[in-house]
Structures are given as structure tokens and as C-alpha cells.
Amino acid sequence: MALPDFAVVILAAGKGTRLKSSLAKVLHRAGGRTLIEHVVRACLPLKPRGIVAVVGHQAAEVSAILKPLGVRMIVQEPQRGTGHAMLVARRALGSSVKYSIVLPGDAPLVRSETLAELARLHQQSTASATILSAELAQPSSYGRIVRREDGTVQAIVEDAALSADQRSISEINSSIYAFTINKLWPCLARLRPDNARRELYLTDAIALLRAQGDIVHALVATDADEVLGCNTRADLAAVDLAFRRRKRAELMAAGVGMLMPESILIDPDVAIGPDTLLEPGVQLLGKSRIGAGCTIRTGSILSDVTVEDRVLVKPYSVVSSSYLSAETQVGPFAHLRDAARLLKGARVGNFVEVKKSVLGERVKAMHLTYLGDARIGRETNVGAGTITCNYDGANKNPTSIGRRVFIGSDTALVAPVKVGDGAYIAAGSTVTENIPSDALAIARGRQVNKPGWAAARRRELAAPAKRTPARKPKRKASPRPRPHSRVRSARVSRGKAAAAARRARKRSRRR
Ligand code: UD1
Ligand code: CA
User: What are the structural domains, with CATH classification, of the chain?
Assistant: First the structure.
């Protein structure tokens, strides 16, 4: 595809009032990208003479997206309609270019192939303008194509200006056109803002071309989705849905399995190998690369990840900016982030968080664990409830754990700290010093058992309650039990029990 005789003009200056947003319309996102980026990407494969965007609202932000894509920008200020935008673009186009493809910045579903077809048709015919149109079941809000009996186009009539007869026309104007430039300019000069919005409408140029005896054709898009514009939030949602459907269809055609595909969200740059299965509610975002033969189970969200082959991500896991080597397993309910890296066959289980850490081959961390800024050698077993205390209030400190280490449950590793190959750490340890290879580290209080202590305490607790009624007659008779009296006696007896317990402790210490 190469269209050296064509310059592309993208009309992207509008605010998007109907979105009720502080963000300019073309900066809104659908299908994982801003609207304007989709439109430019559809144009790039055409290899046109140049791409010019007419910008206005939030021009700086729009420019930040367009510059890297090699798009020239021209500012329309104020924005006085699509025809006015085209007049502004004229300055940027120069006089040497023969044809122009014009697109709105808010119809992002259009495909390169369709644009190429429009250009080819226009170039081969004698028409001064060729419109991309579509048959829509719900044409309201779009301008309609009014055709003559010979099938050529007579005019475009905006929705607000339709006569009762014209209202039944279902062929709409997509706002995507091919123009023969030297025919268009004289008509633009004759546009008048005599319409509902008091703007210069590019659509009015069609009737003006006809009036000067020119021919206008319309190419009906085979896929009506391609022309959908985004004027409202509901339009944005519908367009997003169409993009997601398109992406899923591509992937399924390439061998990716999906259950309840309509519940699965996949960004445009995501790549997935064949025989990978995606369960309902999965989201694959950013520039994620997923290998072949993987299973991503329900509710998991993966963004900017690299996942090799035969990986299992169990339900409701969240993995971002991380690397999962072949045959690793993650979840359910795991959270891997910021450069977590699992080497081949490593496994991370439920309620385990891994951040900026490397887990060697076949390392297991199966339950309730936080591993941050850690390197863990192959085949090490990380017990339930292990925590790397990597943050000292000011800095993040590293933890280095060797190969085939056994970390007992509920171990706190106070970083910076190193554990040698083959070491054992007793459960419940708080490790503050390095552990040599093959050593056993126990870092916890020694257990003391006090035989019979609990039974004695229970007896003491029970005893004062029995004695209280004996004292009762000494008190002044009272018709009803005094409020709080029982509470007070309980407090007294508890005090006594505590004293007894203290004595018992003292005795056992002496022993
Ligand atoms: C326009 C068409 C309508 C068509 C519909 C298809 C006109 C008058 N109407 O209506 O026939 O069915 O698109 O989606 O053209 N823009 C500028 N400068 C301006 C005004 C608009 O650059 O001064 C840009 C907008 O940013 C937008 C595009 O032009 O990207 C279209 O403008 P919009 O207001 O969305 O036109 P519609 O009402 O949708
Ligand atoms: Ca629009």
C-alpha cells in the first residue's frame, strides 16, 4: 500500500462537548488507545505523502501523542466547524498534492484496507469527492447521504436539518472522505454558517460540488462498525466493545481459546500463543506477551507481563510488569508486581505478594508471604507467612537466600540479610543476622511449659465466685440486687486470680 498522491487530514480540534469531560474528545480511550492514535495508526500503512492533524483543544497533549507518530500539526483556533478545520489544514497541505483523505479524529474503528479501497475508488473515478458511508440501523445523530436517482450523491444533510422524508434514510456520512484537492478549495471558500451550530460544515461542500457540476460518489462500508463515531460516553463504550470483539476474534483465529469471550478484555498490543486458554473475566493489558499452552484462570489481571509457555495463573491473580518463566504457577489470589521474576517451574500460592524479586527454579512460596527486593536460589521452600522486612523506614534493603534453603513458617527476614545455601530456619524466627550455608538458625524466645498452671488458674478464677454469697448477709438488706455488684465482685476476684498467677510464675521461675 502506498498513496504518494494523497495527503491525509485528520480533524481533531473539537472539544467533545457531548462527552461532558474536561478531557478533549480525541484523547479519550477506547480499545486500549486514545481515539486519535487509532486513527493515525489506520492511516500509517497507506504511506501517504503526509499526515496533517488539525488540533485545538488540549493541543499540547494531543501533540505528545502525534509527534512520535510523525504527524504534522496545525492549530485551529477558534474551532468554527469541520469545514473551517479543513480551510485551516489547507495552509499545511501546499499546492502540489493532488488528493486528500479526510478523517474525523473520533471515528477510530476504520481499517487501513477500507481507506485504501476508498482512495483507489476515488482515483479511478471522475468524482471530485468520494464519501465513505454506511447503512446503520440507528442512523440518528449522523448526517445522511441523499442520493440522486442515478445513484450518485446529491448532498449530505445533517441530522438536525433533515426533512420528514429524509429522516428514513439509513445511509450515513462517516465523515471520512477522499477529495480531489483543487476541486474542494473553491467550495470551501463558499461555505456559510447558516445552520443549527452556526459553523462551517464540511458536509455542505458536497452540495456545492454538485452545484458546480461535479460528481460525488459514496462507498458503503461493508462493516458498519468501522464508521462509528464517539460523540457520547455511550458511543465510546460501544466503540470499545467493537475493538475488544475484533481483538478477541483475531486471537481466536490464531488458536487462542476463550470461555465466555465477551467477558474477556484484551489490549491491542497483547500477543498470545496458540492453545492458551483464557477463562471468564480475564484482563490482559498493556504490552503483555503470553506464551503457548498457558491457562489464565478466571478474574486474573495481567498487565505488561511476559509469560512463557505452559504457565498456569490460578483465579484472581494480579500480575504487573513481571516475568513468568515456563511452567511456573501463580495464585489463586497472588500479587506479583514491579519486576517480579519467576524462573522455570517456580510456584507462588495464595495471598503471596512478590515485588522486585527473583525466585529461582522450582522455588515454592505457597501461602501468605511477602517477598520484596529478594533473590531466592533454586528449590528453596519459603514457609507460610514468611516476610522479607525490606523497608527500614528510609531505604529498601535486599534479602539474599541461597539454594535449597528451608524457611520455616512465620519467619521474618530483616534486610539486608543473607541466607547461605542449604540452611534451615526454624519456624517463627526473626532473622537479623546472616546465616551460613547448611546451618540451622533459630531466632525466637525459648518455650517454657508450666505443668498444671492452667488448671490452677481456672480453679482460682472459680473460687471467689463461690465465696461471695457467704459475705452477703453482712451487707444491708436490699430488696433488689444492687446494680454492678456482680461486676465489682468479678473485678475483685480477677485481681486475686492475677495475684495468684504472679505467685505461680515466681514459684516456677525459682524451680
Ligand atoms: C460529523 C458530520 C456528520 C457525520 C459525523 C460522522 C459535519 C458537519 N458533520 O458530525 O455528517 O455523520 O461527523 O461521525 O461535519 N472538528 C474540528 N474542528 C471543528 C469542529 C470539529 O477539528 O471546528 C473535528 C472534531 O474534533 C471531530 C470531527 O471534526 O473529530 C467531527 O466533528 P464532530 O463535532 O464530532 O461532528 P459530528 O457532529 O459527529
Ligand atoms: Ca463526531
Answer: 3-227 (3.90.550.10), 255-441 (2.160.10.10)
Active-site residues: which are they?
A: 367
Q: What pLDDT does 499 receive?
A: 73
Spatial distance between the Cα atoms of 226 and 207, rounded to a whole number of angstroms: 25
Q: Which ligand is nearest to the CA of 26?
A: 1
Asked whether the beta carbons of 202 and 88 are under 8 A apart, the reply is no
Mutate to test the pocket of ligand 1, among 82, 157, 199 (most ligand atoms within 8 A of CB): 82
Mean pLDDT split into 10-residue runs, the chain, 511 residues: 94 94 96 97 97 95 96 96 96 90 98 98 97 96 96 96 96 98 96 95 98 96 96 97 98 98 98 98 98 98 98 99 98 98 98 98 98 98 98 97 98 98 98 98 97 97 69 53 47 62 67 48
Place of cell 474503528: 109
pTM assigned to the model: 0.87
Burial environment of residue 291 by CB neighbours within 10 A (0 to 12, 13 to 18, 19 or more)? buried
Residue with cell 498470545: 272
What does DSSP assign to residue 484?
A: T
Phi, psi of 171 (to 5 degrees): -85, 120
The residues lining ligand 1, judged by C-beta closer than 6 Å to any ligand atom, are 11-14, 25, 54, 76, 79-82, 84-85, 104-107, 142-143, 156, 158, 172-175, 201-203, 229, 231
> Which three cell numbers, joined as nine digits, stand for 385?
507467612
